[in-house]
Amino acid sequence: MDLIRASTARAARLEALSDHTYSVTKTGLVIGAGIAGMTAALALADQGFAVHLVEKEGSLGGFANNLTGTLEGNSPVALVHALAERIKTHRNVHLHLGSQLVAHRGHMGAFAGAIRTTSGEEAIQYGAVVVATGGSAYTPTEYLYGRDERVVTQVELSRRLQTDLDWARGLRQVVMIQCVGSRNEAFPFCSRVCCSAAVKNALLLKELNPGINLVVLYRDVRTFAFKELYYLKARRRGVLFFRYIPQAPPEVHRENGTLVVDFTDRSSHQDFGIQLDLLVLSAGIRPNAGSAQIADLLKLPTTEEGFFLEAHVKLRPVEMATAGIFIAGLAHSPRFIEETLTMAKSAAQQAAKILCRGQMTTSAAVAEVDEQKCTACLVCVRVCPFGAPYIGDEGVSCIPPSACMGCGICTAECPAGAITLKHSTDDQITAKIDALLENP
Amino acid sequence: MKNTAHPHISGKALVVGGGIGGIQCALDLADTGFYVYLLEKSASVGGTMARLDKTFPTNDCSTCMISPKLVQVARHRNIEILTLSRLAALNGEPGNFRVQIEKQPRYVDQEKCIACGACAQKCPQKVPDPFNGGLSMRKAAYLTFPQAVPLKYAIDAQNCLYLTRGKCGLCRRICPTRAIAYDQQPETLELTVGAVVLCTGFELALTRQNGEYGYDRYRNVVSSLQYERMLSATGPYGGHVRRPSDGRTPHRVAWIQCVLSRDPSRNRPFCSAVCCMHAAKQAVLTRQHDPDSQATIYFMDVRAHGKGFDDYIERARAHYGVHYKRSMISQVYLEPDSEALIIETFDHHLNRKVEETYDLVVLSSGFKPSEAFGDLAKRLEIDTNPYGFALTDFQHPVHTSRPGVFVCGATETPKDIPETVIQAGAAAAEAAALVHPARHRDVTSETTPPERALDAEPRIGVFVCHCGSNIAGVVDIEKTVAYAKTLPHVAYADHFLFSCSNDTLQKMEALIRDKRLNRIVVAACSPRTHEPLFQSVLQKAGVNPYLFELASIRDQCS
Amino acid sequence: MALSFYPGCSLEGMANDYARSITAVFEDLGIDLVEIDDWSCCGSTAAHSLDETMSVALPARNLAAAGEMGLDIVSPCAMCFNRLRYAQLMLKRGSFDIPWQVDTGLAVHDMTRFLAAPDMLAQIRKRVVRPLANLKTVCYYGCQMVRPPSITGHTDFENPQTLDAIMGAVGAQVKDWSYKSTCCGASIGIGRREIRDTLTNRILDKAAHTGAEAIVVSCPLCQANLDTVPRRPGAGRLPVFYFTELMRLAFRPAAEAGWFRAHLTNPLPLLNTKGLVAA
Description:
heterotrimer, A: about 450 residues, alpha/beta, Alpha-Beta Plaits, FAD/NAD(P)-binding domain, 5-stranded parallel β-sheet, B: about 550 residues, 28 strands
């Protein structure tokens, strides 16, 4: 009852406000031209929207260029080629290779920014952004990686299996260690793809040499959905899977030039030592270095590990909290290629919701500066998390209604009390508090 | 902006399946300028998500999350929901399909039904409620669940005494708006659409026939969805977990993972991807409901491969005290006196087999594509994998084998809600790419009535929401409404069962106009959930949408 | 109706009571059981542990003989049934170097499944003269008759219903329990007795716990284990009947009951109390 009394007190003082309307720039911006970026760009371009596709490297494809094949036998390289062909020839795609986004401001439907290209800076306008800055592989420091050529990652093994079949056929004892650089204190997440990568390479090795002694040391086997069928196949082909626990991980050392891995089987509680020809580390996924720069520029939140943090895990998985900005691919979280393609199209579709409109409106619950009271002290400019206020030509603070998110921080901080937040004015709030504390 | 080019491409799409996948896909298409027919085989959209209590990894209330989308879909000018319908035939080509829809009769006139519930109250025929997994009964005249969309009753033709034997007819006599229409006939609709998206979802592979682990044999063995219903406030026991045998609270609950998943002997060798997480969630909720309870999960691998999932499992173990035992259980035994269940497992510390007793056992059953999909896939000539799931292409992951027909959600592969929502967006993008030349052409546009000039005096309307029993269970609604009437400037006060439901919103609109209210206060949940909804009601009633205030009595008081 | 009959070795010796009750019951049902001429060993446990070809050849000889008779086979012993079906399955899948021509399309019936078919149950009900109304039973199926499903064709191996249905048809009370096909140890009792003792005793304990007065089986080895296993001092024991013995009781209430002496656990006191035999 107290709450209702307080609410009616405020309600009596509410004013009618009008939303602000503005035109939408019907162009999209996609940051990153790996498979996520290319797919998002094409999804928009195919719907008739112009797209700026910005890629800091000199070529297309991102991390997928390092991959040789998927568990199901599909070709990432063929995918990259197919996408690249379409990107290069699509009349709606403006491709900027060797370029980076260096400036960004504005709001959903009406952003403005600048790209630094190989030939200088170019100003661009766009209505929505898809961030697809991608990911990279973790470079292990554990298990003698980098200090012994017999220790490789799954990605490296995959490439050698394509180029060096004789070497592969000659392998007799191979051990794979899962969860390297994942599910630990520094990086507590699962990299999702590594169990499948290990099974894929294990099956390839068994195909080349059925007599190979192949052991996979795992914590949980996460070959979910139909990938499970390949795990079953690997076990039936004689690949041995032994579980380890993080408190007692496998140990690797060198003995007279031989590489040895020691581990304890959790079922029989027996200790095993295997002399290896090859140790394969299933190293996890990390966000790309470029993600941090974009997070900073676009003021986007990230998780502790550096992945972008979406607006809502369930209801808005490809949207960022900042309206008009969307996320796809490894920049969000580790995922398989099909999942990245799906996410990129989904992000593009959310962007299309903005780009397909002629006009948008913004909330009227925004901050308004009383120019008479403003002393241009710059507190509001510094304190705004969205970069909305700026000192205008009149020498006082200007807060464009379409950039203001109505959070009220500047209103509270202004030492001169020059800012009013519409729809949360002082008298509305005071009335509410007074009513709340009244005795009924 | 009207687009008259490409007259042979239809700017309409057909989405088959009204679960979260279908709903999201419909919204993603309708919000980008296309008209969507949303087909649903049952009497209400919502799918499996409407049956869940909370969802991992945030433990958000599932209904709270799907309700805003349900309402959006219900009120969207460019989404037409066709319930009790199925896709009978698909001809033509991408961009210009001719579809044939078969609509079963609801036996209730949707224009007249006000969802008062009198028909269900009077109906003498009780049947096990499939929404609650058969744990409770519903009447032959029924509403699928309290927030059903459309919020209209339906008559179960197979169990209605009048429709099967010509007896009874009580509902027709009692209905205040004469909405009961026993003479409704099945209808066939012929529609033209540019693209089709299939999102028919999943069902549990566990059935009464396959009798795994004593399911449908021992009363205290339930499926994951049945348990989910027990946890739900709108479930068979009002949110209390009870043993079906004696109605008492079970203190020792066990989950058996991978039931009819990862099981080559039953020709179900694949993994259903979500059960590790939903079991953890259910175990956590159980421990929250009853701190004295013991929750144990028997598993093979913990598949927590999503963002934040490992963290969730760790909290389940460390913070909530859920016991994890790595042991594949082959059989559940009944203790006949107490109807408790005995599970034999191998204890690695004692190094021998032990028997552990539980009051209730939950089977985390694997998923299979919904029953209707098998038939549908054959009729539409869509390729499926050996387990009935839709086959897609690596480079085009939401394309089925038939051009112009896309797929999303569990129809393609078992997956969780975020992945389904993402895939729904992708399917919408593909459909949009196909029919984009007709964007904005086949839709109706919103016309907002002009704003009335503001009266000098504030005339406040106060609407107190029951939120089902979430608020009404704690707050005295009558007293609150009476109190509100005494406050300054309050011209009208009333209460509603669910303010966010479409019907209530329409009532509110009418009341605002009739009583010339120029400001409203809704005492309900929180502005975060439904503020835009109530603001749009004000707009439709000709009042400035900023003249709205929400008192969070649910979050703060109940 | 006629069927070829494969009795198996135990019916000649240890399970003689089973054999006699089978003869009586099938006579009453009007079904001709024609014993396969010169039938020989099915191979049982030994053959398949030693040699795959032999494990197929031994049952195949009998399948060939039945094939010549042109009659479907019924086998009362669960192990024989399992081996005959196994041979059939193996011969369907591949070829073996054996000298006999086998018709793999011949039906091999487990006796309980044959008698639990709806039309047979109707016949059984008609033949009942005195229903066993107050006899509380649990049915124990053992392993070979129901598992593995690819051989036996049983899909409900955790909760088989055939014996339950037949006992229901003769009017006995049948209790549900979780141990219908739980391992009793089978022939490991020969080499590792203590394992058999533990497993079988557990089954007897669980059976008694349901309130049953008797256990009903269809396999000679099940009967042997359950009937003869040493019990802890003080632990009671339940009589173990072949299902055909109880059927016979229901069909021919006045028949002589002397053969029950073949049971190690004397069932006569129970049957007397129930008024099911003349004192």
